[in-house]
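Reply to dn_fold:

You asked what the input looked like. This is it:
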Amino acid sequence: MRVLLSCCLLVLSLPLQALPVWQSPEGLDAEHLGQVLNTRTGEWIAPAALVMELVDEDYVLLGEKHDNPDHQRLQLWLLQALQSERQQASLVLEMLRSEQQPQLDQWQGQSLPGESLKDELGWQGWDWSAYGELVRWGLTHAGRLLASNLSRDEIMAAYQQPEPLDEQRYSARARDRLGEIMQRSHCDKLPEERMPAMLSIQQARDQRMAAVLSGAEAPGLLVAGAFHVRKDLGVPLHWPSESAPPVVVMLVEAGSELPDAEQADWVWLTPAQPEQDYCAQFD
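and this is what came back:
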């Protein structure tokens, strides 16, 4: 009882900033909105309690839906909250490619330029308004900001000479599920002959993220898409066997199916963006 009371007092005494105001318009009346589900026990906890759950973890995977601004804002909130308890040694971003690391190292801990930072880092392919603050936070407050995505040349190599999914790491169910996800992400128009290349790129990305994060100084945190962090499909499958597995936190929109314990350790429920039919243009 004394230990539990001390833990509760710590949570109450945390100098946390207020949670960001919701930006997404849907699911605002959802039960447990803004709370975090422990997938092992079924218990819902407050974000401040999640901070205390993560503060002593060496490595955390934080999965998002890329087009939900609440997810990027909560990521920044979580990093700031963890930083108030201990130094964040490493921040790893899917949105940064390996060839950008020299530029990141050049700016690490330095006085950062204004709008020109985006161009000086060679930022491409991702919404800077969504991730710019995370990049700046990583360069200013983390011990090191690390790129974890493949370079263009590496992507092309994985496409031209695809490596099949490692059957010792991916179950038959996982291989089928990844194929379904890949086909759906291409509006069900991906030619069958191109599927091995797409899966090869996905595997190579997850391998790289696992290698970068597991080799980074702890505590380290990876921000990536939800499928990349899933325990049954992504980065955890490639984690070094001699190391304790990373903790998986997934930001999930209200109204979506909630991941279970085989997919994530914690599920943070957020409002949802309006559903968009990205495939309509191909009909």
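The domain at 37-151+217-272 is CATH 3.40.50.11550 (Rossmann fold).
Hope that clears it up.
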